[in-house]
Each structure stands twice: as structure tokens, then as C-alpha cells.
Design goal:
Blueprint: E1 2-7, H1 10-14, H2 20-27, E2 32-37, E3 50-51, E4 61-62, H3 64-78, E5 82-92, H4 95-102, E6 106-111, E7 116-117, E8 127-130, H5 140-151, H6 160-165, E9 183-184, E10 187-188, H7 198-216, H8 218-223, H9 228-235
Parallel strand pairs: 1-2, 1-6, 4-7, 5-6, 5-8
Antiparallel strand pairs: 3-4, 9-10
Helix pairs in contact: 4-5, 7-9
The structure holds 6-chloroguanine (6GU).
6-chloroguanine binds next to strand 5 and strand 8.
């Protein structure tokens, strides 16, 4: 999968490529992340990317020309991507939205800043995306969040089994995890996990997921579609 990002803070966004699972995915050629500096697509001496809003009012607006110039360059070099704009007005990012995006072979993320971007840039945009109902100072963190969550759905980046067990995958929160030692300062690992009985372990985990989801996220629990494992877990 190819992911492009255009931003006025390329050094900030760049760190998404340098750590953990995503760095590995980049190294293994599963994802190609390329970050572009919008200022490189200005033509004036001071590389200005914003201007006063027509009609007046507070704040600045990102100028359209650098974006138009960027798209001309980008489409010429890489062909037409699926273009996302990060904005608090966008469609809320969820696991299922991320999964849809992971099925695209090429996405480009435009990071908004200031009060907004000149509306005419929207002619290049396929979809607007928000990461939640709060306002950030810019679209760089959201772009990094999009890259992170989408990467996990790109085949080969994390084990498929791991993605399926994650919180939210089937509208359930994850079960608790334990590793060695068996006991620490009187706190023990649940007996069932060391029993070696895989079916019992599976039932216990599902039951814990169900319990945690009812308690912490009743809204999610109401969306969860019950299957045979749930039924068995609930009567176990
Ligand atoms: Cl995508 N951008 C900004 N600036 N703020 C946000 C957001 C995006 N999503 C939530 N808040």
C-alpha cells in the first residue's frame, strides 16, 4: 500500500515511519509512506502557505495554490490516489472505516491547519476524516492516527489472529492478558490460563470480554452480535 501525506510539518509526521510495527512494515515493503512539505510547492520567496479569509474574521486560511501545484506534481508522479482530508468535520474514524481504507492500494492524506483550507481544495478530496469530537491544532496527529490504524489492517503487518482479537473487532473489548511470573506480591494469574485446556481458555477469555464490555462500554455491548461462543461462555 502506498500512503502519501502533505503537511507543513513533515518532520513531525515523519516519526510515524520510525517506530515499532509500522517501521517494520515499511522495511518489509508492505507500506510505502512518503511525506511532502507543502511549502515546497509555493513559488514566493517566503514560502507563504496561508492568507487572510475573504469576508473577514479571525484566523488564517490555507491558500489553494500550493495544493493545486502539489496535486499536479503528485498525480503526475504516482497516479491518482484516494484523497483524504483530516478535519474535525470529517467522517469519524473507526476500525471498520480504517478497514475500508486499508483495501485501497494508494491513499493520500492532506493535513489541514489554521482555521481551515480554501474550500476549492475540496475538488481534489474524496473523503474527509475526523478522529473524534474535539478540535486539534492541526491535522498532523490525525494523519498519523489514520496511518497507524489503517496499517494494522494491511495484510501481513500484524497477525490476522491478533487483529481479530482486538478491542472493537466484533464490538467487544479485549480480554485481560497475563505473562510470567505466575504470582507477584500475592497477585496470581487466573488458574484457567495455566490449565492447558484451550477450550476453557477460549471460553474464559470470551466471558471476560463480555463482562468488561458490559461494564465499560454498554453502547458497544448493545451492538455486539451474539454467536455460539458467547452463549457457551455465558453459561460456563
Ligand atoms: Cl482530523 N483535525 C483537527 N484539526 N482536529 C480534529 C480532527 C482532525 N479530528 C478530531 N479533531
Amino acid at each position: 500500500m502506498r500512503v502519501g501525506v502533505v503537511t507543513i510539518f513533515p518532520d513531525f509526521v515523519k516519526v510515524i515511519k520510525d517506530y515499532g510495527v509500522i517501521a517494520q512494515a515499511v522495511e518489509n515493503g508492505l507500506i510505502d509512506i512518503e511525506i511532502f512539505n507543502l511549502r515546497d510547492f509555493t513559488t514566493d520567496k517566503h514560502k507563504v502557505v496561508d492568507d487572510y479569509p475573504y469576508g473577514g474574521g479571525p484566523g488564517m486560511v490555507m491558500k489553494p495554490e500550493p495544493f493545486f501545484r502539489f496535486f499536479e506534481f503528485y498525480n503526475q508522479k504516482y497516479g491518482k490516489p484516494y484523497v483524504l482530508l483530516t478535519t474535525p468535520q470529517g467522517k469519524r474514524l473507526t476500525n471498520s472505516f480504517a478497514q475500508e481504507l486499508a483495501s485501497k492500494e494508494h491513499i493520500l492524506i492532506i493535513c489541514g491547519r489554521y482555521e481551515g483550507i480554501d474550500e476549492r481544495v475540496s475538488h481534489f478530496v474524496d473523503e474527509e476524516v475526523s478522529i473524534g469530537d474535539y478540535v486539534l491544532t492541526g491535522g498532523e496527529l490525525p494523519a498519523m492516527v489514520v496511518i497507524d490504524v489503517v496499517s494494522r489492517f494491511v495484510s501481513g503487518v500484524v497477525e490476522e489472529e491478533s487483529v481479530k482479537n482486538d478491542s472493537f473487532y466484533n464490538d467487544l473489548l479485549d480480554h485481560p492478558h497475563y505473562t510470567r511470573p505466575r504470582e507477584i506480591e500475592g497477585f496470581k494469574v487466573p488458574e484457567v490460563l495455566v490449565s492447558g485446556n484451550h477450550e476453557e481458555v477460549e471460553l474464559w477469555r470470551r466471558k471476560e470480554s463480555l463482562k468488561k464490555t458490559i461494564l465499560k462500554r454498554p453502547d458497544l455491548f448493545m451492538k455486539h452480535a451474539f454467536d455460539d461462543l458467547d452463549k457457551k461462555a455465558l453459561i460456563s
